[in-house]
Amino acid sequence: MATMQQVADRAGVSIATVSFVVNGTKYVTPKTKARVTAAMRELKFRNNVVARALASRRTRIIALLFPTTGNRFSPTTSEFFMAAAERASERGYHLVLWPVDPAGDDLHDLVSGGLVDGVILMEVRMDDPRVAVLTELDVPFTLIGRTRDSSGLPYVDIDFETTIERSIDHLAELGHRRFGLVLEDLDGTPMAGYAPHRRVEDTFEQAMSARGFQGSVVYAEGGSEGGRDAARRLLEADPDVTAVLIMKDDSSAGLLVGLYAAGRRVPEDVSVLSVASSGAAGDQHYPRLSTMVAPGRALGTRAADALIDQLDGTSVELPHFLLPCVLRVAESTAPVSAGASATA
Q1: Helix 30-42 and helix 4-11: axis angle, to 10°?
Q2: Which of these CATH numbers, 3.30.379.10, 2.70.70.10, 3.40.50.2300, 3.40.190.10, describes 61-158+296-323?
Q3: What mean pLDDT is predicted for residues 277-295?
Q4: What is the CATH number of domain 4-47?
Q5: E runs forming strands in the chain
Q6: Which strands sit side by side in the sheet containing 118-121, from one edge to the other?
Q7: At 84, phi and psi to the nearest 5?
Q8: 138: pLDDT strictly greater than 60
Q9: For the chain, does the N or the C end have fewer beta carbons within 10 angstroms?
Q10: Which residues lie across from 271 on neighbouring strands?
Q11: pLDDT digit string (tens) for 220-247?
Q12: Which residues touch 342 (CB under 8 Å, ≥6 apart)?
């Protein structure tokens, strides 16, 4: 097997430069790094992560922890993961996706075995037992999300409060006064108490009360059928609803079908706004959904930086980053019709 010295000779650099590239310990210019990695491939040099870990007591591996329950890998989640992985690589770390039990019962084995240097925790609940386990194990971690009180925890998150306020602002400017909100039904599952849902629902209800608007909340089962049922129950709760927010990508198509089946045209009779999704997901529907686009890549990058800053000892303060979704207007939102306005 090739040695670092052989790689250095082939690339025309010092052995220290090869070590910097292998270990990610110091900055190397992209041109020099490309020469070194090309030499490593040509010589079939194997970067022995285990040997490095034994020598340095660090693996330079970080884990993104994802709950094992249900199908929760959305397009936005993919963006989080890819952006975090890219940033970790830029900073000399490897990021792995690691499914964990929602209760955190398997975290001890992951951490105590020395497999990873730190973790990023996703899909956070308001009272998340995994946070308590990680705190007790004294492992460096960062949350993508917030618990009920995250003031003493490192986190990055979507600013759901601002996102919902801006969603309602957009629709209110179009004349809407009767709103519906569709969320995923997680009651009775290990993900009950999912923090984004709680924050979105609380903000929605507060905004309805403060503005004197009519608001109805329904929880949808999975898939298209769940969306159809949500449309039916929304119209039962308020037959005159003119604007619907939905935060459930896999049920959006069903919601549109359910509204059409009930004789409601989108957007002529009912406007629909998809929350914390992506433009690509919105474009898969007819009409194309107006969307509050989630800042997936920005959050993934910030989460990786927040954790690696802890690991490298460069943190100066506890990271608290909140990024709102950005409105992308498409075809599913429009001014309220004159008849609906009169009814409201």
Answers
A1: 120
A2: 3.40.50.2300
A3: 94
A4: 1.10.260.40
A5: 61-67, 94-100, 118-121, 141-144, 155-158, 178-184, 214-220, 243-246, 271-277, 290-293, 320-323, 326-328
A6: 94-100, 61-67, 118-121, 141-144, 155-158, 320-323
A7: -65, -40
A8: yes
A9: N
A10: 243
A11: 888 899 999 999 999 999 999 999 999 9
A12: none
**Whole-number Å distance between alpha carbons of 167 and 246:** 11
Q: Which residue has the tokens 């209800």?
A: 205
| Cβ atoms within 10 Å of 244's Cβ, excluding its own | 29
Neighbours of 12 (CB within 10 A): 11
**What contacts 187, CB < 8 A, 6 or more positions away?**
219
Structure tokens that stand for 83 in this block = 């952006």
* Distance between CA atoms of residues 5 and 17, nearest Å: 10
Q: Cβ(281)–Cβ(291) under 8 Å? A: yes
Q: In the prediction, which pLDDT does 50 show?
A: 47
Does 6 or 315 have the greater pLDDT score? 6
Buried b / exposed e over 74-104, threshold 16 CB at 10 Å, is bebbebbbebbbebbeebbbbbeebebebeb
CB 267 within 8 A of CB 287: yes
Do the domains spanning 4-47 and 61-158+296-323 agree at the CATH topology level?
no
Confidence of residue 136 (pLDDT cuts 50, 70, 90): confident
